[in-house]
Structure formats: structure tokens, C-alpha cells
Write a structure and sequence with these properties.
This protein has about 60 residues and is mainly alpha-helical. Helices cover about 75% and strands about 0% of the residues. The protein contains three helices and no strands. Helix 1 (about 1-25) packs antiparallel against helix 2 (about 30-45). The chain is flat and about 45 Å long. The termini are far apart.
């Protein structure tokens, strides 16, 4: 079981890094906000639009 847990953890870390790179490459100036949202999603898997507004400081959502 511990080998499976270690594999899963590695996959999660690889996916996180892949998402970081995609945000950096594709969002340009908005990348900082994208990284804030991504890190929040890894800490709290359920967020609301209001949470995202608070995290990023962007008021024009919905």
C-alpha cells in the first residue's frame, strides 16, 4: 500500500508542476493570479467564485 501511496503522491506533484508551467506559459500577466488559484486548489479542493475573487483580488467575476 505504501508504494501505491508514494506513486500517487509523485503523480500529484508532477501534475502540479505541469499545471504551474501551463499557467506561466499561457496566462502571461495573469499568471500570478493563476498561480494563487492553483495553490489554493491544492490546499482546498472546493472553492467558490467569491473565494477566487478574494484570492486574486479580481472583482469582475460573475
Amino acid at each position: 500500500m505504501s508504494n501505491e501511496a508514494a506513486r500517487t503522491a509523485r503523480k500529484i506533484l508532477e501534475q502540479r508542476e505541469s499545471h504551474r508551467l501551463a499557467i506561466t506559459e499561457k496566462l502571461g500577466r495573469a499568471a500570478a493570479s493563476g498561480h494563487k488559484v492553483l495553490e489554493t486548489l491544492y490546499l482546498r479542493t472546493i472553492v467558490t467564485v467569491n473565494d477566487i475573487k478574494e484570492i486574486t483580488g479580481i472583482l469582475g467575476l460573475m
